[in-house]
Amino acid sequence: MTTHGGFEPVFCTIVPPHVLDKLSQAEDPALAGPARRTLQRDAFERTQRRLTTVLGATTVASVADGKPQRTIHDARHGTDLPGHKVRGEGDKPGKDATVNRAYAGLGATFELLLTAYQRDSIDGNGLPLDATVHYDRDYNNAFWNGEQMVFGDGDGEIFLDFTIPIDVIGHELVHGVTQYTANLTYFGQPGALNESVSDVFGALIKQYTLGQTAAEADWLIGAGLLAPRVTGVALRSMKEPGTAYDDDVLGKDPQPATMDDFVRTGRDNGGVHINSGIPNHAFYLAATALGGHAWERAGQVWYDVLTGGELKEKAMFTDFASLTVKAARERFGDGEELDAVSKAWEQVGVRTL
């Protein structure tokens, strides 16, 4: 497996560690138990990912023919991957809604990449898309492990089935796109950019699937994932970072919207799921200023930066922002696209060179 600039161990989860940490401290064992087991499982999978990186990942044959190659497996509440094959490319939907949602989500991600950006799967060369559902018991997460997607069913108390929000599926798969392109280091500001890019394209995949304009979209990541008892609407908000949830068990959404509130922490790989709110908000501002379908102009600029070869693995917010300004000018000239992108970064307090 080759990537731009060398390979970094990749294990990316949709639910941030700080959320599970908070949940694991709940007095109710029905809430704390699944969160603790999820943290333990995530730690194990993260270690396995590092070992796989050292030993070498399994080579998967890619065929660039412009058609998806999807395979869905069922872990049957175990942890052996990939599990039992339950649906292949072209197979009719079965009775398991989770399997069907995973299959559809992989397809939606493939379609946006191909239709909007002429990218054939996440590696650009027709990489097969594999996913495993019903992973472990009460597993409160979904992740990309560098080779495939994995979805938990949630505990039913705080989190529901992780295949419900299509942007969660897209978010995790786009970690694969980043892996095969800019390969952003998963720590600090580069890691926050890694997370933000996945949120951006996860949101675009949802909007594309629903046929929404930037004005019509909710700009939420993980809407529909939180159980009814939770006081919140999603995992993150690109429109209003820091407002996605405010719950007595989960705590309050800690994402900042601007550099004025940038969080300095050693946890969560230097706050990759927290400070991603800043570039997320910049994209939202640019996309809504331009209007129309966000994947067409703002999304194109972000895609150009991610895949253009100039974005370094350890890029900071300023580096990324400057490249978006350059990409907007190169693709669209000195027009409203350049103005919208430049102003968006200015509004969140990130300078451009």
Radius of gyration: 19 Å
Could you give the distance between the termini? Answer: 34 Å
Main sheet summary: 6 strands, mixed
Q: How many DSSP-defined strands?
A: 10
Helix and strand content put the structural class at: alpha+beta
Strand content: 5-15%
Separate helix tally: 10
Uncertain segments of ≥5 residues (pLDDT<50)? 1-7, 53-58
Oligomeric assembly: single chain
Which outline best applies?
globular
Strand order of the largest sheet: 1-5-6-4-2-3
Order of helical and strand elements: EHHEEHEEEHHEEEEHHHHH
What is the mean pLDDT? Answer: 93
Summarize the amount of helix as a percent range. 40-55%
Describe the structure.
This protein is of the alpha+beta class. The protein has ten helices and ten strands. The protein has helices at residues 17-24, 29-55, 97-117, 166-180, 188-210, 268-271, 277-290, 298-307, 317-332, 336-347; strands spanning 12-13, 70-74, 84-88, 129-133, 142-144, 149-151, 220-221, 236-237, 246-247, 251-252. The strands form three sheets. It has a six-stranded mixed sheet with strand order 1-5-6-4-2-3, with helices on one face. It has a two-stranded antiparallel ribbon with strand order 7-8. The chain starts with 11 loop residues before the first strand and ends in a 6-residue tail after the last helix.
